[in-house]
Amino acid sequence: MDTGSDHPETLARRHKCPACFKQFKRKEHLIEHLKVSYHSVHQPKCGVCQKHCKTYESLHEHLTGPLRKACCSKIFSDLGCSLCFKIFDNPNSLTKHKEGCCLSAPAPSGIAMPCAESQEKLSGVVVKNHTGRGHGAVAMDCEMVSGGDNGSLNLCARVCLIDEDENIIFHTHVRPQFPITNYRYDVTGLTEEHLKDAMALNEVRDKILQILYNGESVEKLRLDGGKARLLVGHDLEHDLDCLRMNYPEHMLRDTAKYFPLMKTNLVSHSLKYLTRTYLGQVTSVLVLFCKLILSNTGKLAILLAIIIIILDRICNLFWGLWNYQAHKIIDQAFVHRYDIQSGVHDPYEDCVAVMRLYKRFSCQLDHVEEIGTQNITGGLESYMSKELMKMSPSELYAMSRSNYRCWCLDSRKIMQP
Fold first, then answer.
1. What residues pair up with 159 in beta bridges, in sequence order?
2. Which residues contact 19 (CB under 8 A, 6 or more apart)?
3. Which superkingdom does the taxonomy of this entry point to (predicted)?
4. Which of 50, 254, 261, 417 lies in the 20 to 30 Å Cα band around 316?
């Protein structure tokens, strides 16, 4: 039986993708692959082998999944950050990095709202005289109640806006235009009393647009944004629809629709999942102690590690049987958790989460440094087939472009004079 396809000379003639390392027998197949895969410097990539992935979820599978690459997994487990996927030169640098990378949930908005002279409080409304720079970003989140005859309408009942420094710009209850059939108290914590003297929807919408436009004209906003502010949020289409408000698509930064933060099948993750996965994580002290023991050799160390793993499983099994106060104390002592939307939803908490996600993934310095090496405005479609056939795989990759706008370009725009 002919096994010529496995011959070294045949393998040497294969055309390898410089981004994902797939190999093709024909150059035409490599070109078609690059056209549909949209490889670019903006894609998440492994810090060890430099393999490009479509999403951070697929990168996580590459490093820690069942089919992980052994050499990459070993280095990542020792020197890699599980939140931002960066690789460090030594364990000390990694430990120092994690102190700032692993975040905690902010204080509730009821505590976080400062009573400064620059603020005006009227009937639960907080308006801050924001004097931040242009080209900045504002995070927004809305809480909904049900309305309409059958309760199928989502009506905005509370809205919060914060700046890049997590300061509240605008926070108020909203009086819906239609009768409310369900206040969704378990989620919103709202009652009829909260909305009795609330601001009208039209007034709230005008105030939000005033903050976002930042004195910029509508024409300039639609062209390139000017000094208007970016709007950050999760599933912004839903929030804007409930506010009966429009804002240009190129000024939106939606964590639910940003390709690198989506599932491998390009379905959106929940904000709760994104926050827990990329901003903070549950880390048991028992597991950390177990890893420390396994770093040593000897049968006694392995036996002790097995005992600790069993104890950890038993603790998890009976975790829900303890009373609330005991659970809270032990939770603080044994785990670090960044969890949101556990009970009554706080829009300020959600705003902080989306702003932190945006800032984390818009500050990918390796992306900014490599932008000059790749044509992000052109594309393989603008070249004739004969011209593409003459290019090397590296040149083809340099001409490939992303099918989404990377958030790192926002940081680059701000850094420019």
1. 142, 172
2. 34, 37, 39, 43, 45, 51, 52, 397, 400
3. Eukaryota
4. 261
SS (H, E, C) 343-372: CCCCHHHHHHHHHHHHHHHCCCHHHHHHHH
Distance CA 129, CA 13 (A): 65
Sequence ranges of the domains in the chain: 13-103+365-415, 109-263+268-273, 285-334
CB 362 within 8 Å of CB 136: no
The answer to whether 208 and 243 have CB atoms below 8 angstroms apart is yes
pLDDT digits (tens, 9 = 90+) for 347-357: 999 999 999 99
The string of pLDDT tens digits covering residues 135-190 is 589 999 999 999 887 778 899 999 999 999 999 999 999 998 888 999 999 999 99
Strands 153-162 and 137-147: antiparallel
CA quadruple 360, 85, 36, 41: dihedral positive or negative?
positive
CA-nearest of 205, 220, 202, 197 to 161 is 205
| Alpha carbon distance 305, 194 (integer Å) | 53
Query: pTM for this structure?
Result: 0.79
Let me know the angle formed at the C-alpha of 350 by 44 and 163, rounded to the nearest 5 degrees: 85
**Whether 279 contacts 104, CB under 8 Å:** no
Distances in Å between the Cα of 19 and the Cα atoms of 41, 276, 363, 394 are 9, 29, 21, 9
* Residue 351 backbone dihedrals phi, psi, to 5 degrees: -60, -45
